[in-house]
Each structure stands twice: as structure tokens, then as C-alpha cells.
What does this fold into?
Amino acid sequence: MDERKQKQIFDEWLSQHKGIMFKIIRAYAFNPHDADDLFQEISLQVWKSIPEFRGESKASTWIYRVALYTATVWVRKEKTRPPTQPLADVEHALTVTNRQRDERSEWLYQQIGQLEPIDRSVCLLLLDGFSYNEMADILGISASNVGVKVHRIKQHLIQESKEVEHHGL
Amino acid sequence: MDFEELQVIWNNQNNEKMYAINESALNNYIKKKTKSIGGMLNLFEFILIAVNLFVGIWLTIESLDNNPLSNQFLLAIFYLAFAVYGLIRKFMRRNEERPFESTVVGELDKAIWRVDYLMQQSRNTIFWYLVPLVLIFAVMSVFDSRLIWVTGMLLVVTAATYFAHHWEFNKYHLPNKRNLEALREKLTAKENQ
It folds into this structure.
């Protein structure tokens, strides 16, 4: 595949499916510097995956898989990396636009962010309406295993929501 | 709150504008990275193959002009064999990468395989390239004492490469591999709940 065609597909994907990337970034990166770093990493991996895309799945499913894998590995690497100071003069590929977000969605993202990286993937897929079979296909595990994880995550989220409910959520 | 209510919160946030993309900065980053990663690996493989091929052909011509049964001819065969080996490995790598599933587990398997491949390549270069080269020069220096210093130099380079390989493996590749294996284990583990 020539680079022009790859760029054309990448631009299309970015314009149509950037929402997927944003949700994953918000669930895995908790400050603007990390969000920018993760966005660049996900974009790079999506770009590199384009020649392998055979159209056997929807582009959105493909991007979800690549982005989830990248974020999961990124978050593990970040834990072991010494903290670095963001450079002021570096050109950022991603900037936070809305700091006044809905309180309830902010809380939900916080809860997702507290899950194990693998469980965050399952949780995002669940909330975005993927079926157990589709989740199993994206993750590469059995549907029954997905079911067990989903059950545990749901229980956890419901439990947490009950605890904050009387604080006026 | 039940899960359906959480789902409503989630569905509502789908319309929130979260970030803005600087496309020019993103394109610059991708260009820089794709050139540095893929380009470096291919360039390294290409240089290794080209150098071995060039030296092998040059030594073959030299030895045919002088004495076809000379030490030079032995070296020529060695260099040509390594160039062919490099080419075969390059194509094998491309073919071997294909069977991985297009899933998150498949991506993890591919990444683990790549770490193993990298380390295997590094080991192979030491044991099937540098060590035989030292041995060939050691044998040649028995007949030509001027080659002793070359043998000594190669021995030092081989030892240094061996220790660098071990350091790199323990410092970077082993922790990275363990990380990936732990993620895979976490993802595929059956939960008894």
C-alpha cells in the first residue's frame, strides 16, 4: 500500500472514529500530557495497522482493538517509567478542550480509570454496546470469559454508584 | 443506581467535546516515528546483508584470481552464506508474522514473539557470525601470524557484543516481555466468580 492511500484511510478513520480514541484516552490517561502521549501512540499504531486491515471487520471494531491494545500496554509501561516534565515548546497533537465536563460522566470515567487496565477495555466495550461475542472477537478470549468479567465489572460499578448516590450524584 | 442508569450517563457523554486534534503535529509525529522504527530495522537488515554480500563477492573474485583453495575462499563462503541466511530470515519473519489473530490477545502474542525474535537474532549474530569469524581468523592466523591482531580484535568485539546483548536483554527486553505476558495472563485467565 502506498503512503498516500494509507494517509487517506488514516484521515478518514480519524475524522469518523476519533470518538473511540478519545474515550479510550480518557479512561487510560488522567492528565493532558499523558492524554497527548497516549493519543500519539494510538494514532501511530492505527496508522501502522492500516496495511493489515482486510475489511473483515468494521473499521470501528478494528480501531477499537488497536487502540485498546495500545492503551493497555502503554499504561503498564507508564507505571515503570520515571515521571518526566512536559516540554512547554513541544507541539501537542491533542489538547483538552472541555474542562467543564458533566459531573456524572466525570465520575463514571473515574470509576473506569480505577479498574485494572484489562478490565477497563472490557468496560468500555460493554458501555459502547458490544455483544459478548463481539467483545470476545476483539479481545481474543472466550465469550464465557467475557461474561464473567462483565458480571464482575457491573457489580463493581453498581456498588460504587450506590456508595456515592447519597452524596448527590 | 442500576447499570441501565450508568449506561444512560455513558450514552450522554458520547456527545461531549473532549479534545481537539492538531493534525499537523500528529502527521509530523507519525512521519518521524514510522521513519525511525521501520526504517531503522530494515536499514540495519539491509546493511548487514549488503556488507556480507559485497565482502563475500569481493573475496571470491580475489581468491579465484590468486588461489581458489586459499583462506580467502573459506572466508568468502562464510560471508556469502551469512548474506543468504540474512535474506532467508528477513522473508521468514514476514511470513511468520501473519498467523497472529486480529485480537488484543493476538497483538500481545505478536509483541511477545517480536521480543523473542529480536533476542534470537541478537544471539544468532553472536554465535553464528562473530564466533565462527573468530574461529576462522584463529585458524588463519596459525598460517599467517600477521592475522593474530585481527583475531584478538574480533575476540574483544565478540565478548563486548555478548555482554551488551545480556545487559540489553535484562534491562529492556526481559521486563517488557514479562509485562506483556502478565497482561496476556490477566486477560485470558478464567475467573471463578
Remarks:
- The CA atoms of residues 49 and 85 of chain B lie 9 Å apart.
- The mean pLDDT of chain B is 83.
- Strands of chain B lie at 19-21.
- Chain B touches chain A through 47 residues (CB under 8 Å).
